Amino acid sequence: MDNEQSNDSRVPLRVLSDSGNRRADNTAESGPSALKRLHDEQKTSTGRRFALVRRRARNAGQAVEVDKDDGLHAPARLTTHVANVRRVRMDRKLMLRELVPLSSSGFRQYTAGAMRAYARDLVSGKADTYMLRTEDGRSAMPMCTMYCPTSSGSKRLLAVGDEEGGVSLLDTQYGADSAKSKISHWQAHDNSTFHLQWAPDGTHLVTASGDQSARWWDVRTQQLLNVFDGHTATIKCIAFHSSDPNILATSSRDGSVMIWDVRCNSAVMDDGYRHHRPANRISNANVHPLGTPALRKRRKVVNDARRSVTSVLFMKHREHLLASAGASDGIIKYWDIRQHGSYSSRDAPTPVATSEYGGAGKRPHGIAALTLDESGTRVFAASTDNHIYQYDARFLGTANAAYTAPTYRCSNFYVGIAISPDDRFLLSGSCDRSAYIWGLDATPSAEGPLILQAHSGEVSHVAWCPTDVSQLATCSDDGTLRVWNVDRAVAEKCRRSENVRQHYGVVVTK
């Protein structure tokens, strides 16, 4: 053994035996000198300590267990080779986040049990509670929110649309009481902003409104660049193409889906802005067969109140496929956008594929929101029968999993859902004034969801930070937007003390 290996043998390592049950401290020295050396090591920088441990474990060829006794705040009983241990900065402190190999999404992942324990430490305090204001100082209820997909460094850019038609841009690395957190605010529409979507480049934002238009903004200057006209009712959803940032789709309460290409079909109008006409249109996208076989042959159109197309989504496994869902039938439909013009003139267009409703209700319920995981293999649909259904994105068919809870309520079409950036969690708003988190690695019926309690009104739209799994945001009818961060120390204080808990939104289990 060389000198470096000889010196390394003095480092206390918890060595796992072959059975994984016995541990032995491999310590070559003891007494005051050993304690002083350990104290000196703890005073070194985090990076140097981790480099030292990695090198020693590599030389010894041993697996180690790192736990809270080492001061690293790791989830209990996770083991790994030290060469895989990394630290990342999370919300003004260093925490050990991942201990196992990288997933396809680029995030390191916990085991299912440890990931659930990690999410239990989400908290939201007074400094994480944002109240939106109009330009004249009136309060504005948040309607929708989305994190910037390209936030770098410590920035956590969050766009929020409000009931007064405004858009606010926040940096959630700062508290709500800090002036630095409020980057900009502008009046985007004359009616409520119901949905917004970041362009893939992270410098442009598209907003949808009750004024029947969608608008493309330069976030840096708040300048209006494009206006999308054509819908005859409130626009409910916006979706960008999975690989072409020039193509987007919108869905509306008028029952149609429109596909836009910012490179064509436009003209500068008298107001000085460039207005676009749709490049393709799917009329009556939410039509479904009704009643007797004779009526199904006639393909009667549902009434106006249930025509709404609530959500659209471009697929990743087939870039020419667009998914839609509506308020009437609980069915997801795939449309081939290459069939230019073939859907626009039909009273009842035929999709290339549909899902099968197998929900818990006696009648089909509508779908409030769709989302797709990062891998593009799973589609999730929030149904107004108080379930979230999971489908195989390649085949649709019947749902292969369902997520719910006795208190979970999705009884309107404002409830939103989101997937964590590592594809391990499903987040949803709820009409019972809470937000819910289910683990996607565990059997849905095996354990209940984590319930985020803080709001005093219905929780509608939700968002998970794509660059930081430890942060998410929730909008509520109580007029607030809350940001949730993983903070183990505060979460443990809340669990121990009812007085502390009164000042924080916390996670509970039932």
TrEMBL record:
Superkingdom assignment: Eukaryota
Pfam families: WD40 (PF00400)
InterPro entries: WD-repeat_CDT2_adapter (IPR051865), WD40/YVTN_repeat-like_dom_sf (IPR015943), WD40_PAC1 (IPR020472), WD40_repeat_CS (IPR019775), WD40_repeat_dom_sf (IPR036322), WD40_rpt (IPR001680)
GO cellular component terms listed in the entry, alphabetical order: nucleus
GO biological process: proteasome-mediated ubiquitin-dependent protein catabolic process
MF (Gene Ontology): protein-macromolecule adaptor activity
WD repeats: 186-227, 228-270, 417-441, 452-487
Region annotated Disordered, chain positions: 1-48
Keywords: Repeat, Ubl conjugation pathway, WD repeat
UniProt cross-references to SUPFAM superfamilies, sorted A to Z: WD40 repeat-like
Pathway: Protein modification; protein ubiquitination
Family, similarity comment: Belongs to the WD repeat cdt2 family.
Annotated protein name in UniProt: WD40-repeat-containing domain protein
Organism whose genome encodes this protein: Thamnocephalis sphaerospora
Species classification: Eukaryota, Fungi, Fungi incertae sedis, Zoopagomycota, Zoopagomycotina
